[in-house]
Structure formats: structure tokens, C-alpha cells
Amino acid sequence: MSVMLHRILRPALKPAQLLSAVKNKQPLWRHETLVSASSACDATIRSLEDCLEVNYGGAPMRFNYVWLRDHCRSDASYNSSTNQRNLDTASIDLSIRPDNTTVQDGHLVLTWPGGHVSKYSLSWLAENSYEKNKQSPIQPRILWNSDTYKKANIPSAKWESFMSCDDEVKKFLQNYLLYGIAFVDDVPATVEATEAVTQRVSLIRETTYGRMWCFTSDFSRGDSAYSQLGLDRHTDNSYFQEPCGIQVFHCLKHEGTGGRTLLVDGFYAAEKVRQQSPENFELLAKVPIRHEYIEKSENHRNHMTGIGPVLNVYPWNDEMYMIRYNNYDRSVINIVPHDLVRRWYVAHRELTNELRRPENELWVKLTPGKVIFIDNWRVMHGRDSFTGLRQLCGCYLTRDDVLSSARVFGLQA
Ligand SMILES: C[N+](C)(C)CCCC[C@H](N)C(=O)O
Ligand SMILES: O=C(O)CCC(=O)C(=O)O
Ligand SMILES: [Fe+2]
């Protein structure tokens, strides 16, 4: 491939400095090197003062020199079989600049002072540039209310194919990532089959409630879930520092009335608050709230607390990643000054009003055979009060493990 090198010479020094520079053998000119490669993967490169500008297709991309040295993919710098860095980042001169810059066969090739050569494929650079990534969310989602969810007509996975076909699990995970809920139908109404379905997705997270749990309204634990009472929308484990990422439910039996499951997209409601009153959104994203689970019975002793804002937002792009909303388990507010407390209640009321809009409520009756996976960092669940024997089994999963499964399938998560 032919590579054309154009040197654009620009005075780097003021005339008065020139003389001493000559004496001290310093470079007189700062080089802005334009490298244009005439091939299918045309790229032009400009060396700027503190970064390299790469024009390759889309918008110009800028890469800091230390970043480039740090992200060198040569064997000495990076172990490509473990995908781990070998290079000690602290050994890089923070004012490093390459001595030579070229484009060869779709690669940017840099020669560093001392002779080390780094090669980066242009497509890898484009994929990993700030310019490419600044626009996209960490996790793409489709926020919903009852109507839009129903209209989307998302198919449930089916037990048979789910258990035998990876592609079925991939489709299921894609729906789960986008909507925060997903269903598997025709599952045998047993704890074992529920466990098997879950394990197709990921690891089960054991908690104080057990690994696989099966519960009914017997007050076996100190929590209203173990009653026949209706439960308002909430997320579980708000009293964990890291609430479980997923909740799995399978209703194995119900001989009675009521007991439908309520689902509400918490992010949909919170986005409404963000649009209507950014200051309330900010309060919900900043004010620390404690949740607590205190259990003191013959068989169980627990005292868990989790502290964090109701809305958890990535600080670099304001994207929401977790909502912690459970009015039952919310603990004493005692680390917030009174005037902020007043404003927080106003913000909390606005969010609650949004969460309670009937058009945001998706009601489903869980029946034997239907397993639901709920994103417990996003979608709230609740239930009608009920009569009769109702047996629910399920488990929790850790979010990291589920997202890992999704990425292994090539999904963005
Ligand atoms: C699901 N399972 C019945 C096992 C536990 C229920 C835990 C309920 C608790 N109030 C919470 O919101 O975390
Ligand atoms: O009984 C139900 O449908 C759900 C109860 C509940 O909120 C829970 O177990 O986390
Ligand atoms: Fe719950």
C-alpha cells in the first residue's frame, strides 16, 4: 500500500527562542504530520500538541498520547490471550509523544522514543474512540408504560427451545435488556425446572431467603411478602448495598382469588420526573436514603442496611442505572438536614405519582408454567392481596453475571 507523508512545518518557538534552541539542539519545528493512506481504509493523521487526530470515515477522533501508549496491543504491553495489560502504566512518561507516525495496511503505527512500536487497527481505534462512544448509552433500553409494552408484543420464550437452543436464550436476554422484564412459558411447575431455566441465564445469588426459595403466606419470615396482603410497587433488597440485579418468580400454585402481579417501569416514571422537574430528579439522585431489614425471630436474625439515593445515575452521562424504591423497607432519614428533607419529600411524591399512574401499571397473573425475570434495578413489582393457597418460587441473580451472559452472546450490556 502506498503511504504519502506530508510534513506541515509550523514554528513551535518564538523567534527569540530560536537561537537558544539551535544551540541546545532542540527541535525548531513542531511537526504536524499528515499521513494519508490511499487504500480502502483511508485515514489521515495529524500530530497535535497533546493528542493525535485521526480522520477515518466519521468525525475526527482525538487520542491522547499517554492513552495511546497505555493502550498498546503489542505482546510486551498486552496479553491478548488473557485480555490483560502487561504494561505498567506508571512507567509511561506523561509527556510522551511518538517519534514517528504512519498508517500501514489499515493500522496506525507509532514508534515511541526508545524504539517501541505500537500498532492499532484503525477500526479498533474508531470503535474505542471517545467520539464514537460519547453519544451512546452504556445500556440501550426501551422505556415503557402498559400500553407501549403490550403493543411491542414481545414473545415469551418457550421452555423446550429455551433449554436446548442458545439463540432462544440470546433473544430472551435481548428483550430482557431492553424492557427489564422477560418471560419463559411452558415451564414445568416445579422448583427444579425453575432452577434449570434460571441457570440457562446465569448464576443464582444466595441470600438470607435461600438460594431457590418457595414461599407462601405462612409468616415464616419477618416480611409482608409472606402474607396475603397486597404489596405496592417496590424494588427488592433496597437494604443491600448491592441489591440483587434480577428477581425470578414462578407461581407454582394458586387456589383462590387475587394475587395478580403488578409491574411498573421505574425508569419510565423517573424520566418523566427528570423532564418535568429536573431539580426534583436531582434531589432523588443525590439525597442518601437508608433502607433496612431487621429480623429477629427464633430461626432468623438479620440486620441489613443499604444507603444510597433513590435514583442512581452515572455521573459522566446522567444515565440511570438503578432505582431503589421500597416504602416498606425505607428506614429512618437522619443524615439529611430538615430543609432538604422537605424538598426530598416533594420530589419523592412526584416520583410516586408517576409510578402510580394507572397507564404505567402492567398487571399480569402469574400462572404455573410462566416464569418471569424482572430487572430489580429498574422494574418494580407488587401484587394484589389474595385468598387461598398461593405458592411462589424463584430466586435472585446477580446483575454482573446476567450482563456477562448477555455480552458473551454479543449483546450490548
Ligand atoms: C422474594 N422473597 C420472598 C424471597 C423475599 C422477599 C423480600 C421482601 C423484602 N421486603 C424486599 O423487598 O426485599
Ligand atoms: O407475592 C408476590 O407476588 C411478590 C411478593 C414480593 O414482592 C416478593 O417476594 O418480593
Ligand atoms: Fe418484592
From TrEMBL:
Involved pathway(s): Amine and polyamine biosynthesis; carnitine biosynthesis
Report keywords, A-Z. Carnitine biosynthesis, Dioxygenase, Iron, Metal-binding, Oxidoreductase
This protein is called Trimethyllysine dioxygenase, mitochondrial
Gene Ontology biological process terms in this record: carnitine biosynthetic process
Cofactor dependence is on: L-ascorbate; Fe(2+)
Its recorded reaction(s) are: N(6),N(6),N(6)-trimethyl-L-lysine + 2-oxoglutarate + O2 = (3S)-3-hydroxy-N(6),N(6),N(6)-trimethyl-L-lysine + succinate + CO2
Q: What is its EC number?
A: 1.14.11.8
A GO-annotated cellular component: mitochondrion
Which residues are the signal sequence here?
none
Using the record's annotation, list all stretches that form the TauD/TfdA-like domain.
Answer: 157-396
The organism's taxonomy opens as: Eukaryota, Metazoa, Chordata, Craniata, Vertebrata
Query: What are this entry's molecular-function GO terms?
Result: iron ion binding; trimethyllysine dioxygenase activity
State the family named in the UniProt similarity comment for this chain: Belongs to the gamma-BBH/TMLD family.
Tell me the ranges covered by the Gamma-butyrobetaine hydroxylase-like N-terminal domain, including all copies: 49-125
Q: Name the NCBIfam families for this protein.
A: carnitine_TMLD (TIGR02410)
